[in-house]
Amino acid sequence: MGINFLLVDALNLIRRVYAAQPGDDGPQRAKDALTTTVRSLQRALRECRPTHAVCVFDGQEQGWRHEMYPDYKAGRTPMPEALRSSLKTFEEAFFGIGVSSLTFPALEADDVIATLAVKVALRKGKVIILSTDKMFLQLLSAQIKVRDHFNKRDIDLAYVMEKFGVKAEQFVDFLALSGDSTNNIAGVPSVGYKTASRLLLEFNDLDNVLSVAGVMKGKTGEMLRKHAEEARMAQTLVRLRNDLEFGLNLKSFRYTR
Question: End of a domain among 134, 160, 186?
C-alpha cells in the first residue's frame, strides 16, 4: 500500500471551529471547540483514509518572514487567550485519536507542511493538506492536493485556473503582484487579481512582467516600475519553504486506527 499522508494545518482547523462556536470568548467556548475539532478531525480521517497523519502547529517565536518584513501579519486579530492557553489540550486530544502533533519554535506551520508534502511527493507518496489557506495552492500537483474540509471538497489544479485565472505554479507570482491581505503583504498597488492574471498569462512569470514594465504604458506600468522591489519581496514572503531539514522519520506519523 502506498503512502497517503494527511497534513493538517492545525490552527486553521481549530480557529475555524472556534469561530463557529456560540457564546463569548472564554474557557467554555474553548472546551466546546475542542470537542467539535476532535470530531471534525475524526471525520477527516474517515474521508481521507490516510496511512500517515500529523497536525502541524505554528511555532510561538517569530520566524524569518518577520525578520525580513516586520509588518508581516500586522493587524491580524490575536488568538483569544482562552483558546491559546488550551492548545496543549488540543494536542493531547489529537494524540488520543492516533494523530501526533508537530511544532518548531520559529517555523510557521505552512513551511513545515510544505517541506513534508514535497518530500513525500518526491517519494511518489500521495499528500492531502487539510486547510482553507490559499497559500498551499502553490503546492498542488499530481501528488499533492488541498482539501477544503468544511466544504468537503478537494482543491485541484483546475480550481486554481478557474478561481484565479493562473496555473498553480504561477500562484506565488500571482500573489506577489496582487498581494496577500491575510498576511499584510501589499504586492503592487492597483494590481488586483484580474490584472495579475492577465499579466501572468501574457508574460508567464514575475521576472518577465518586471522586465517589460519599463515599456508598459499606463498606470499598471508605472506601478510595476515604482514597486518592483516590493513585488520581489512579496514573492519571497509568499513562497513556502520546502527545503527544511527536520531529522524526522515518516514512521513516526503512521496512522493505524
Answer: 160
Give me the DSSP letters along 134-203: GGGGGG-SSSEEEEETTTTEEE-HHHHHHHHSS-GGGHHHHHHHH-BGGGTB--STT--HHHHHHHHHHH
Contact 41, 55 (CB under 8 A): yes
As given in the structure block, the three cell numbers for residue 195 are: 490584472
Model pTM?
0.95
Among 89, 97, 73, which Cα is nearest to 186's?
73
pLDDT digits over 99-158, tens only?
Answer: 999 999 999 999 999 999 999 999 999 999 999 999 999 999 999 999 999 999 999 899
The amino acid at 112: V
Specify the CATH number for the domain of residue 209: 1.10.150.20
The Cα–Cα gap between 38 and 27 comes to: 17
For all residues of the chain together, what is the average pLDDT? 94
Grid cell locating 38:
476532535
Indicate whether 9 and 89 sit together in one domain. Answer: yes
Considering its fold, how many domains does the chain have in total?
2
Structural domain that includes position 52: 4-160
Rounded to an integer, what distance in angstroms lies between the CA atom of residue 185 and that of residue 191?
Answer: 13
Pairing of strands 126-130, 144-148: parallel
pLDDT for position 1: 64
What band does 256 get if pLDDT is binned at 50, 70 and 90? Answer: confident
